[in-house]
Structure formats: structure tokens, C-alpha cells
Write a structure and sequence with these properties.
Elements (H helix, E strand, L loop, with lengths): L2 H40 L2 H6 L13 H13 L5 H16 L1 H13 L4
Amino acid sequence: MSELDLIFGRKKKEEKKETEIQVEKTVEENKSITTNANEVSNNNIEEIMKKFIDKDPKIGIWSYPSYLVLQYLYNTVPGFKMSRTAKEALERGLKEMYPDLFQVAEKVAKENGKI
């Protein structure tokens, strides 16, 4: 075995060690993120939501398919309301994706006279 083979062999081993260290760091970071998420979920969700209740509830989205559907309907259906339809679609989607959080959000909004 030549000296070059020895050097390359060592480099490969060092690269493996570096990769293993990076994987371990990534695993540790993911554990940390999970822990932070659990801490947030353990906090009182209503109190966190109440911090936002008096802010402007406008939401901006960037979606060409949604935009095109809404524009088509607006221009072809008399009396079509883009905002109302977008609101209903967003609420349905969030209610389906996050039913527990959405239920708490509805409760907080009702208690504060927002809906």
C-alpha cells in the first residue's frame, strides 16, 4: 500500500467521523425542537392566542392556483365574494388539519366578541 493510499484511507475515516458527528448534532437539534414544541403545547394555548386577539386578522397568501380559481369565479359568477370564499376555504382547511387548535381559537374569539 502506498503512502497516498494510507493518506486517502485516513481521510475517508476522518470524513466518516465528521459525518457521524453531523448526524449526531442533527439528531440532538431535532430532539431540542421536539422538546420546545412540547413545552409550547404544555403552555396554556388560550393565553398565547389571547395575545393576538386584538391584532389585525388579515392574512396574506401566495398561491397561483387559488388566485386563478378566485379570479375566475369573481369574473364569471355574479355577486361572488372572493374574501368570503377564501375565508371559508381557509377555515375549513385549518379545522380539518388542526381540529383541537381551531376549537380553542373559536372559543377565544367568541369570548372576546370577535365572532
